[in-house]
Write a structure and sequence with these properties.
By secondary structure, the chain is mainly beta. Helix content is about 10%, strand content about 40%.
Length: about 110
């Protein structure tokens, strides 16, 4: 499934548990195929996640989005709308949200080589 808004288009994976939903935003061209997972592997973390979790008569929306990709409130609002459309229950419940924007400054990796 694709997420598209203005100039941004990226792949998504959607995970369901009961009524709860997690959406992962990423670029599938950076994902390695199973046959490529030998020796040196580069694992791309993607552009972020949103999680919509139901609590009784309300829902909580939280997540982390890469501020270089989701560069304005307009893109963030579109991502919120995207996950809400995936959940038909969301339009009938109070849903406060907290979304953290992150900027990658470094990383830690293990690739089997060292």
């Amino acid at each position: 499934m694709k997420f598209s808004h203005n100039k941004l288009s990226c792949d998504t994976e959607v995970y369901y548990k009961d009524k709860d939903i997690i959406v992962r935003f990423f670029d599938s061209s950076k994902e390695q195929e199973e046959d490529d997972i030998i020796n040196l592997v580069i694992v791309d973390p993607g552009y972020g996640y949103l999680c919509l979790k139901y609590k009784g008569d309300a829902a909580l929306l939280s997540g982390f989005l890469d501020e270089d990709v989701f560069s304005s409130d307009d893109y963030i609002d579109a991502a919120i709308s995207f996950i809400e459309v995936l959940s038909p229950n969301s339009k009938y419940v109070y849903t406060p949200y907290h979304i953290t924007l992150f900027k990658q400054t470094s990383f830690i990796e293990y690739n089997g080589e060292y």
